[in-house]
Amino acid sequence: MNAYWPAELVEGPVTLRPIRLRDQRLWRDVNRRNRDWLRPWEATVPPPLPGTPPTRRPTFRQMVRHLRAEAHAGRMLPFVIEYEGRLCGQITVAGITWGSMRSGHIGYWVDQDVAGRGVMPTAVALTVDHCFRRVGLHRIEVCIRPENTPSRRVVEKLGFRDEGLRPRYLHIDGAWRDHLVFALTAEEVPEGLLARWRSLWHSQK
């Protein structure tokens, strides 16, 4: 494995760890309970071109094996999120590019039952610090549908820069959807993103 993977990142009741095959039952339970909450923001597969077979969604086992292979190759960091020891979501750094770019983008989802408790900002801050300080990336993007107010609040709280709109950027919930692009570079958080979030979180209590 890479020097920076597998990794376990912890801040208070929030833990990020690699996704495992044995997470299947808990992962499916959380997804099932949150189906309506997550559906408007989940990636979907576009219709196939004429004469080509439809693309099937992978099984959980296939998904985990793919994520592990991509992590081993240095192209992805796939974490599950635990809150107080219970699996409650997922955060993945994908599209990792090396060379002169050294960037990646973050996608995430969380159980509605723990929304508003600081879980997702903490998870994003932990992930960004790991990417900048341990992995050696320089830039992190988060792309969010304009209508996804809870997700936008996460990056806005953390101080991500709004870089504008990407029209019809991703196939989400059955159609090509516009996304807003938010980004950070390592120079913008010399103190670490987690330190920034701790200060803000404590000031709100």
UniProtKB/TrEMBL annotation:
Q: Which UniProt keywords apply?
A: Acyltransferase, Transferase
Question: Which residues belong to any copy of the N-acetyltransferase domain?
Answer: 14-187
Which molecular-function annotations from GO does this UniProt entry contain? protein-N-terminal-alanine acetyltransferase activity
- Is Transferase one of the keywords UniProt gives this record? yes
Keyword DNA-binding applies: no
User: Record's GO cellular component, any one?
Assistant: cytoplasm
Pfam families per the UniProt record, alphabetical: Acetyltransf_3
Task: Mark the transmembrane ranges.
Answer: none
Record-stated family: Belongs to the acetyltransferase family. RimJ subfamily.
Under what name is this protein listed? GNAT family N-acetyltransferase
